[in-house]
Input
Amino acid sequence: MSATMQPTWLMLGASSAVARAFAQEAAAHGAGILLAGRDMEDLERQAADLSIRHDVPAAPVPFDARDTASHAAFVEDCAARAGGPLNVFLAFGVMPDQAEADRDPAIAAGMVEANFTGATTVLAALAPVLEAQKQGVVVALGSVAGDRGRPRNYLYGATKAALLTYLQGYAARLSRSGVRVLCLKAGPVDTAMTWPLPKLPFMTTPRGFAAGAWKLAQKGGGGAYLPRIWWPVMTIIRSLPTRIFNKLDI
Amino acid sequence: MSDTMTEERAAAEAAEAHRAAGWKQVSLQGWGRSSAAPCLAARPERMRELMAALDVPEGRTLLPYGGGRAYGDQALNTGGAAVLTGRLDRILAFDPASGLVVTEPGVTFADLLRVFLPRGWLAPTSPGTAFVTMGGAVANDVHGKNHHRAGSFGDHVLWLDLLLPDGRQIRISDEEEPALFRATIGGMGLTGIITAVCFRMQPVPSNALTVQSRRIRNLDDFLAGFAAAADATWSVGWIDALAGGASLGRGILETAEPSETGVALPAGKTKAFPLEAPSWALNRMSVKAFNALYWRRVPEAGRQQLQHYGKFLYPLDAVLHWNRMYGRRGFHQFQCVLPFGPGEMALRRLLETISAAGDASFLAVLKVMGRPGRGLLSFALPGYSLALDIPARPGLRGLFASLERITREAGGRIYLAKDSLLSAEGFWEMYPEAQRFQEIRHSVDPEGRFSSDMAKRLGLAA
Ligand SMILES: Cc1cc2nc3c(=O)[nH]c(=O)nc-3n(C[C@H](O)[C@H](O)[C@H](O)COP(=O)(O)OP(=O)(O)OC[C@H]3O[C@@H](n4cnc5c(N)ncnc54)[C@H](O)[C@@H]3O)c2cc1C
Ligand SMILES: NC(=O)c1ccc[n+]([C@@H]2O[C@H](COP(=O)([O-])OP(=O)(O)OC[C@H]3O[C@@H](n4cnc5c(N)ncnc54)[C@H](OP(=O)(O)O)[C@@H]3O)[C@@H](O)[C@H]2O)c1
Output
């Protein structure tokens, strides 16, 4: 890959439907794509699709969020492959059933590792690269579930809240180098993660979500609810008195 | 009392187990919306998940479901399980020298148009809606307005990857497993799940065609018009199915040729038909008015226009979900092909029967078909194809039975992609290779793991 002024989007957790849709947006705008994840067979297919549809360079890179020791070398490899400025889309995450996580500590710890620990180590490894290039944007997928812990998925919510707090400091640090960090508080998106669940409110499609995320990624940083409707909804939910909140079946 | 409680608990536990395995209880519909099928559905985002979906909950059969554009019960599997293939939508390979493409099964004609038309390549043939998937295109061996010249979709397929009911994935073609290849083209999803399709696109000089439209006064005029247009690359006839008497078969004949000069892209998005129209909104008067208007749209002297391929190939797609227009009860579609010769008389009898029944149909579509398809259950035969919508209503079966009889007597056949009412007896007579199809199916699926509502209705599955 030759050095060009077109950025390369590094998709972390690239098999996720949200990441797939975002990669289509980015490639449609001419960006190169690095597809990082564990399912290499799937990422090969995605790389072929992106380069055929949009005539951009696209390549898979093995990445496991829980293998934190590998993250430094992984980032080095990605920076070398991109050859130009990197942007980052952080989409990996798991959402096992809360009850399952309560029963099995390995599942609980695995979720914290994948959603939080692994995110911080790969972001830490990326920070000097982003600072050196003095431009770029990091988009990370938080969740409305992180706004207030609910009985149904408070461990998952906690990992997303922790990620958000981490990203606040991370964003402040990188802003000094002209790098923007956008943390999206995502509402339900119609993906593999939510497919088996009963009907969820204000569900969006991956494509709709990605189009919104792309727009937001073009300007500013900070935090944003996506879709926007979740801002008023979560403002209300956050301000409910505990006594009432605890009785709600949400 | 305690019995129902145990049952409820058992049902809740089963639902939980299904959920954990990625299954969801859904209600699927055919495009005609005349029936709904409750079933479990998996929606794999990648091959690994597709493989896992073969592990169907005890006692259920499986069926792939693509774009949901089959009209009747063909893509439905009531009480069974469905694999929705729409998210498997990657284009895997493209060779700009030969036009060969390899896609996953959920890629649609809309994707092909968007990606390849700007580079001068068009699908070898295409059905009347772009929302059909490649899996569905193979499974019905679909045809387009160029059938008389280009044949059916299956004629352009070099090979398929097929996930068999037993979990093996194999490549099939004229050389490898040719019998299974012929059973899978037009095989209605009953031989396994198509996981990749390799086919050849056709080069086109621009994004547009020159379309000639002219008014046709009656059926004789139509048949003469088609005969004269035998060399046209594309041709299609729109018939006002409510016109009778001396105007029986009145309509518009469109022929089209690739144009050297293109058009600017049509602006705007497709509009979704807003609400479900009440069933009474569609009556003989409103349809008559619509059909008459459609006819007058073309000036008496005829008309020539430059049209984008998308507009010419997919005129109805401009209104997403137009099928809701027929109201809650939905509608049926009848499509048959009648061999040249005896077919002409039969065509007249079909139109007379429909016109006399006064059933509201927007437009009937008349096409000329060329060679027979390669699939054992392919629809195509050299002859005339007639297709029309009929809103669901009591007494409709009687009309369909008459249409089926006329079709059979003329040696024609009814198109399974559109069908919901054909009799099993009629099917076995119209599709003489059905027995061969069954033998091949049994060899790859001896336990009958794959099934559909249509397969049961037509006596292909228990
Ligand atoms: C407005 C409209 C216009 C049409 N015009 C035409 C036309 O001009 N010519 C024509 O030939 N047809 C036409 N059709 C019919 C349509 O092309 C066929 O019904 C087609 O098979 C639908 O494909 P689908 O992807 O929607 O599949 P579905 O409707 O979801 O399924 C159809 C069949 O394909 C099987 N199938 C789907 N995916 C797979 C897979 N991956 N592997 C194996 N089997 C699979 C299903 O099991 C089912 O039996 C039209 C339909 C509509 C709604
Ligand atoms: N869907 C929603 O409603 C919703 C709402 C709010 C937030 N989110 C967040 O949005 C993101 C994308 O989710 P999705 O809905 O698209 O779900 P998804 O399809 O399940 O995607 C999650 C992705 O994370 C990857 N992943 C999991 N563990 C990993 C690991 N250890 N290393 C590398 N990759 C790993 C998975 O890839 P492999 O298993 O192939 O490795 C998978 O591609 C997630 O962070 C999720 O929490 C989703």
